[in-house]
Amino acid sequence: MKIVVLNGSPHPKGATADMVNAFKAGAEEAGHEVNVIACAFKNVKGCLGCDYCREHEGTCVQKDDMQEIYPEILSADMVVFASPIYYFTLSAQLQAVIHRTYAIDIPKNVKKTALILSSGDAFVYGPAITQYYQSIVEYWKVENAGIFTANGDQNHSEEKRQQLYRFGAAL
Ligand SMILES: Cc1cc2nc3c(=O)[nH]c(=O)nc-3n(C[C@H](O)[C@H](O)[C@H](O)COP(=O)(O)O)c2cc1C
Protein backbone atom coordinates (compact mmCIF):
# COMPACT_ATOMS: atom_id res chain seq x y z
CA MET A 1 0.00 0.00 0.00
CA LYS A 2 1.19 3.50 -0.76
CA ILE A 3 0.72 5.71 2.30
CA VAL A 4 1.04 9.51 2.38
CA VAL A 5 1.35 11.25 5.73
CA LEU A 6 0.48 14.95 5.73
CA ASN A 7 2.25 16.31 8.81
CA GLY A 8 1.12 19.82 9.72
CA SER A 9 3.57 20.40 12.57
CA PRO A 10 6.30 23.04 12.17
CA HIS A 11 8.53 21.04 14.53
CA PRO A 12 10.63 18.38 12.73
CA LYS A 13 11.53 16.81 16.09
CA GLY A 14 8.21 17.60 17.76
CA ALA A 15 5.65 15.35 19.35
CA THR A 16 3.63 14.92 16.15
CA ALA A 17 6.75 13.92 14.20
CA ASP A 18 7.60 11.46 16.98
CA MET A 19 4.32 9.59 16.46
CA VAL A 20 4.59 9.87 12.68
CA ASN A 21 8.09 8.36 12.73
CA ALA A 22 6.89 5.42 14.83
CA PHE A 23 3.93 4.85 12.51
CA LYS A 24 6.23 5.03 9.47
CA ALA A 25 8.66 2.50 10.95
CA GLY A 26 5.83 0.05 11.66
CA ALA A 27 4.18 0.48 8.26
CA GLU A 28 7.49 0.07 6.43
CA GLU A 29 8.21 -3.04 8.48
CA ALA A 30 4.92 -4.39 7.14
CA GLY A 31 6.06 -3.67 3.58
CA HIS A 32 4.16 -0.46 2.89
CA GLU A 33 5.63 2.57 1.13
CA VAL A 34 5.36 5.65 3.36
CA ASN A 35 5.94 9.21 2.22
CA VAL A 36 5.82 11.87 4.93
CA ILE A 37 5.14 15.36 3.63
CA ALA A 38 6.15 18.15 6.03
CA CYS A 39 3.34 20.53 5.11
CA ALA A 40 4.66 23.31 7.35
CA PHE A 41 7.82 23.51 5.27
CA LYS A 42 5.99 23.66 1.95
CA ASN A 43 4.90 26.79 0.17
CA VAL A 44 1.16 26.15 0.04
CA LYS A 45 -1.17 29.13 -0.20
CA GLY A 46 -4.79 29.10 0.91
CA CYS A 47 -7.46 28.15 -1.62
CA LEU A 48 -8.68 31.17 -3.60
CA GLY A 49 -12.08 29.63 -4.25
CA CYS A 50 -11.83 30.90 -7.81
CA ASP A 51 -13.19 27.66 -9.33
CA TYR A 52 -10.52 27.75 -12.07
CA CYS A 53 -10.04 24.04 -11.26
CA ARG A 54 -13.68 23.32 -12.06
CA GLU A 55 -13.19 24.47 -15.65
CA HIS A 56 -9.65 23.08 -16.09
CA GLU A 57 -9.94 19.38 -15.19
CA GLY A 58 -8.81 19.76 -11.60
CA THR A 59 -5.80 21.93 -12.35
CA CYS A 60 -5.22 24.56 -9.68
CA VAL A 61 -4.50 28.11 -10.86
CA GLN A 62 -1.93 28.56 -8.05
CA LYS A 63 1.49 27.21 -8.93
CA ASP A 64 3.08 26.46 -5.58
CA ASP A 65 4.23 23.30 -3.75
CA MET A 66 0.76 21.77 -4.03
CA GLN A 67 1.82 20.82 -7.55
CA GLU A 68 4.14 18.18 -6.03
CA ILE A 69 1.63 17.17 -3.34
CA TYR A 70 -1.34 16.57 -5.67
CA PRO A 71 0.20 13.52 -7.40
CA GLU A 72 1.21 12.06 -4.03
CA ILE A 73 -2.36 12.25 -2.72
CA LEU A 74 -3.87 11.05 -5.99
CA SER A 75 -1.67 7.96 -6.09
CA ALA A 76 -2.01 7.11 -2.39
CA ASP A 77 -4.03 4.18 -1.06
CA MET A 78 -4.07 5.74 2.39
CA VAL A 79 -3.74 9.29 3.69
CA VAL A 80 -2.71 9.97 7.30
CA PHE A 81 -3.42 13.43 8.67
CA ALA A 82 -1.00 14.41 11.46
CA SER A 83 -1.04 17.68 13.34
CA PRO A 84 -0.52 19.45 16.63
CA ILE A 85 -3.74 20.90 18.00
CA TYR A 86 -3.74 24.63 17.39
CA TYR A 87 -6.71 26.33 18.98
CA PHE A 88 -8.70 23.09 19.14
CA THR A 89 -8.19 22.09 15.53
CA LEU A 90 -5.61 21.16 12.89
CA SER A 91 -2.70 23.50 12.19
CA ALA A 92 -3.24 26.12 9.49
CA GLN A 93 -0.45 24.55 7.45
CA LEU A 94 -2.31 21.23 7.26
CA GLN A 95 -5.64 22.93 6.71
CA ALA A 96 -4.20 24.80 3.72
CA VAL A 97 -3.19 21.50 2.09
CA ILE A 98 -6.61 19.96 2.82
CA HIS A 99 -8.44 23.00 1.45
CA ARG A 100 -6.38 22.86 -1.74
CA THR A 101 -7.59 19.29 -2.43
CA TYR A 102 -10.75 21.11 -3.54
CA ALA A 103 -9.11 21.13 -6.99
CA ILE A 104 -8.90 17.33 -7.23
CA ASP A 105 -12.03 16.77 -5.13
CA ILE A 106 -12.25 13.20 -3.79
CA PRO A 107 -8.95 11.36 -4.38
CA LYS A 108 -10.33 8.22 -6.00
CA ASN A 109 -7.47 5.88 -5.06
CA VAL A 110 -7.62 6.54 -1.31
CA LYS A 111 -9.33 3.73 0.58
CA LYS A 112 -8.49 4.54 4.17
CA THR A 113 -7.34 7.40 6.36
CA ALA A 114 -6.03 7.88 9.87
CA LEU A 115 -5.50 10.81 12.22
CA ILE A 116 -2.56 11.56 14.52
CA LEU A 117 -2.87 14.48 16.93
CA SER A 118 -0.63 15.96 19.60
CA SER A 119 -1.71 18.55 22.15
CA GLY A 120 -0.83 20.11 25.47
CA ASP A 121 -4.10 19.33 27.19
CA ALA A 122 -6.50 16.41 27.10
CA PHE A 123 -10.09 16.74 25.84
CA VAL A 124 -9.24 19.32 23.14
CA TYR A 125 -9.78 17.14 20.10
CA GLY A 126 -13.49 17.68 19.42
CA PRO A 127 -13.33 20.10 16.46
CA ALA A 128 -10.32 18.38 14.85
CA ILE A 129 -11.93 14.94 15.04
CA THR A 130 -15.61 15.57 14.49
CA GLN A 131 -15.81 18.72 12.44
CA TYR A 132 -12.70 18.04 10.38
CA TYR A 133 -11.51 14.46 10.20
CA GLN A 134 -14.79 12.57 10.39
CA SER A 135 -16.31 14.93 7.85
CA ILE A 136 -13.51 14.12 5.42
CA VAL A 137 -13.92 10.38 6.06
CA GLU A 138 -17.60 10.66 5.18
CA TYR A 139 -17.03 12.96 2.20
CA TRP A 140 -14.28 10.79 0.73
CA LYS A 141 -16.25 7.62 1.63
CA VAL A 142 -13.15 5.95 3.06
CA GLU A 143 -12.45 3.70 6.03
CA ASN A 144 -11.31 5.39 9.21
CA ALA A 145 -8.36 3.17 10.10
CA GLY A 146 -7.64 4.88 13.42
CA ILE A 147 -7.39 8.03 15.51
CA PHE A 148 -4.37 8.50 17.78
CA THR A 149 -3.83 11.32 20.25
CA ALA A 150 -1.11 12.27 22.70
CA ASN A 151 -1.25 15.05 25.26
CA GLY A 152 0.95 16.23 28.09
CA ASP A 153 3.32 13.51 29.28
CA GLN A 154 2.09 11.15 26.56
CA ASN A 155 3.98 13.27 24.04
CA HIS A 156 7.37 11.76 23.15
CA SER A 157 6.51 8.71 25.26
CA GLU A 158 7.57 5.14 24.50
CA GLU A 159 3.97 4.07 25.08
CA LYS A 160 2.72 6.24 22.19
CA ARG A 161 5.61 5.19 19.95
CA GLN A 162 4.72 1.55 20.53
CA GLN A 163 1.04 2.23 19.86
CA LEU A 164 1.78 4.01 16.56
CA TYR A 165 4.37 1.41 15.53
CA ARG A 166 1.89 -1.41 16.13
CA PHE A 167 -0.80 0.43 14.19
CA GLY A 168 1.50 0.84 11.19
CA ALA A 169 2.73 -2.74 11.39
CA ALA A 170 -0.83 -4.11 11.49
CA LEU A 171 -1.98 -2.36 8.31
C1 LIG B 1 -0.51 28.33 18.20
C2 LIG B 1 -0.66 27.19 19.17
C3 LIG B 1 -1.94 26.81 19.56
C4 LIG B 1 -2.12 25.74 20.43
N1 LIG B 1 -3.38 25.40 20.82
C5 LIG B 1 -3.57 24.36 21.66
C6 LIG B 1 -4.88 24.00 22.10
O1 LIG B 1 -5.89 24.59 21.71
N2 LIG B 1 -5.00 22.96 22.98
C7 LIG B 1 -3.91 22.27 23.45
O2 LIG B 1 -4.09 21.37 24.25
N3 LIG B 1 -2.66 22.59 23.03
C8 LIG B 1 -2.46 23.62 22.16
N4 LIG B 1 -1.18 23.94 21.74
C9 LIG B 1 -0.05 23.08 22.16
C10 LIG B 1 0.37 22.06 21.09
O3 LIG B 1 -0.75 21.36 20.56
C11 LIG B 1 1.33 21.03 21.71
O4 LIG B 1 2.46 21.70 22.23
C12 LIG B 1 1.76 19.94 20.72
O5 LIG B 1 2.34 18.89 21.46
C13 LIG B 1 2.78 20.46 19.70
O6 LIG B 1 3.11 19.43 18.79
P1 LIG B 1 4.46 19.47 17.92
O7 LIG B 1 5.61 19.27 18.87
O8 LIG B 1 4.34 18.36 16.95
O9 LIG B 1 4.50 20.80 17.23
C14 LIG B 1 -0.99 25.02 20.89
C15 LIG B 1 0.30 25.41 20.48
C16 LIG B 1 0.47 26.47 19.63
C17 LIG B 1 1.86 26.88 19.20
Task: Describe, in short, the structure shown.
With 171 residues, the protein is α/β, with parallel strands linked by helices.
Number of strands: 5
The CATH topology annotation reads as Rossmann fold
Report, as a whole number of angstroms, the end-to-end distance: 9 Å
For this structure, what is the CATH class?
Alpha Beta
The residue fraction in helices comes out at: 25-40%
Uncertain ranges: none
- What is the percentage of strand-forming residues? 15-25%
Query: Number of domains in the coordinates?
Result: 1
The rough form would be described as: globular
CATH homologous superfamily, by name?
Flavodoxin domain
Strand order of the largest sheet: 2-1-3-4-5
CATH architecture assignment name? 3-Layer(aba) Sandwich
**Helix and strand succession?**
EHEHHEHEHEH
> Radius of gyration in whole Å, from Cα?
15 Å
How many H/I helices?
6
Q: What small-molecule ligands were found?
A: flavin mononucleotide
Mean pLDDT: 97
* Class by alpha and beta content: alpha/beta
For the report, how would you describe the main beta sheet?
A: 5 strands, parallel
